[in-house]
Automatic annotation (TrEMBL):
Cofactor requirements of the protein: pyridoxal 5'-phosphate
Residue numbers of N6-(pyridoxal phosphate)lysine PTMs: 198
Pathway(s) it belongs to: Amino-acid biosynthesis; L-valine biosynthesis; L-valine from pyruvate: step 4/4; Amino-acid biosynthesis; L-leucine biosynthesis; L-leucine from 3-methyl-2-oxobutanoate: step 4/4; Amino-acid biosynthesis; L-isoleucine biosynthesis; L-isoleucine from 2-oxobutanoate: step 4/4
One protein family per Pfam: Aminotran_4
One Gene Ontology molecular-function label: branched-chain-amino-acid transaminase activity
Protein name per UniProt: branched-chain-amino-acid transaminase
UniProt keyword RNA-binding, yes or no: no
Species: Denitrovibrio acetiphilus (strain DSM 12809 / NBRC 114555 / N2460)
Length: 367
């Protein structure tokens, strides 16, 4: 698909001035340009890279009223060779289409999405931060734009990609483990719902659970399934635990859990690091007993933004606290984090073929 490219003159382009790792926020900064593609009458058209700015959307747009809105999250990294590398964009593009199907939205061909993201990344390569734990975060999304209040899927859509030079998702980055609240009060998703889609409604409804968890000085809730028996995931990452025989256990993907690309990638990597991997339904009672008995030695979460985030403590509404291991960052979690991020950042060979170098395109510049 031809992408019309209207770039700001060099003199009007900004560039991040935040150079230290600690103060580079996650998701707040924007690069100079964005990608837009529109859909109408069954066709994706008018692909364009334009200066970052407001979208014009009618107040009656379906996305605003009935939540036909899906998104993705991916990352690109600047390597020491001075080239920009994108991480598994194709997987994000495929998952966007899975979400699209679940929300009765049109698929957008994977090659169109990837080409669009690559071209935008090329234009914005100078925005990729270099400090530790940072990346150029890629946020594709699609919204239903038809101005129609009847409860039906929109007939028109916009696909947009914006970029955000970002630091670690959890403040303090990998140096700090997070605490999770175990509660039966809130659920993220139910079987037959949209839990395995990356749709906005899943996130908006999670704010109240996150707010509640803050009362216990926790970062988030550990969501259980609707029967309160099984661990599902956390609001922005899959959950994992590590047993003392070096098995990494991730809850089996169901239709109420997001199929994390990080989890899938780490699962591919783990055998080479000497770990066994298991995906199964994890009973919350057995998980907590496993921590108490010492059978479970580490726990945490996997996600694009969260990368590999260690969990130090599980908190309960009655005030009880269960500490995992010694409450610090376990050596296995550290080993997995280091091996995974070494590949992303080009410090270790990309044997699994996860990275794609962002080409230097020739532009057909719009005047
Ligand atoms: N689970 C939820 C609910 C998420 O929002 C995310 C983030 O994308 C993840 C898990 C991790 O998925 P991924 O590794 O593909 O980013
Ligand atoms: C991601 O990890 O990319 C996400 O989308 C999670 C989040 C910031 C909502």
């Amino acid at each position: 698909m031809e992408i019309k490219t209207t770039l700001l003159p060099e003199s009007q382009r900004k560039c991040s001035t935040i150079k230290d790792a600690e103060s580079l926020p996650f998701g707040k900064l924007r690069s100079d340009h964005m990608l837009l593609i529109d859909y109408a009458k069954g066709v994706w058209k008018d692909a364009r890279i334009v200066p970052y700015g407001s979208l014009s959307i009618m107040p009656g747009a379906v996305a605003l009223h009935y939540g036909q809105s899906i998104f993705e999250g991916a990352k690109a990294f600047m390597h020491e060779d001075g080239e920009l590398y994108a991480f598994r964009l194709e997987e994000n593009a495929k998952r966007l289409n899975v979400s699209a199907n679940q929300l009765c939205m049109p698929e957008i061909p994977v090659d169109v999405q990837v080409e669009g993201m690559m071209k935008l990344l090329d234009v914005e390569r100078k925005w990729c931060p270099m400090q530790p734990e940072s990346s150029l975060y890629v946020r594709p999304f699609m919204i239903g734009t038809e101005d129609a209040l009847g409860m039906a899927p929109s007939s028109t859509y916009t696909f947009c990609v914006l970029l955000s030079p970002s630091g670690a998702y959890y403040s303090g980055g990998f140096k700090h483990a997070v605490r999770l609240l175990v509660t039966e009060r809130y659920h993220r998703a139910v079987s037959g719902g949209t839990g395995s889609a990356k749709c906005c409604g899943n996130y908006g409804q999670a704010f109240q659970a996150a707010r509640f968890s803050k009362k216990y000085d926790a970062s988030q809730v550990l969501y259980l399934d609707a029967s309160n028996q099984y661990i599902e995931e956390v609001g922005s990452m899959n959950h994992f635990h590590i047993t003392k025989d070096k098995t990494v256990v991730i809850p089996e993907f169901t239709d109420s859990i997001l199929r994390s690309i990080t989890s899938l990638s780490v699962m591919e990597l783990l055998p080479s690091l000497g770990y066994k991997v298991r995906q199964e339904r994890v009973k919350i009672t057995e998980f907590l007993d496993g921590i108490r008995s010492g059978e479970i030695i580490e726990a945490g979460g996997f996600g694009t933004a969260a990368v590999v985030t260690p969990v130090s403590e599980y908190i309960f509404e009655n005030g009880d606290i269960l500490t995992v291991g010694d409450g610090g960052i376990g050596e296995n979690t550290r080993k997995i984090y280091e091996a995974y991020t070494a590949i992303q950042t080009g410090k270790a060979a990309d044997k699994l073929g996860w990275l794609q170098k962002v080409p230097h395109f020739q532009y057909d510049l719009a005047r």
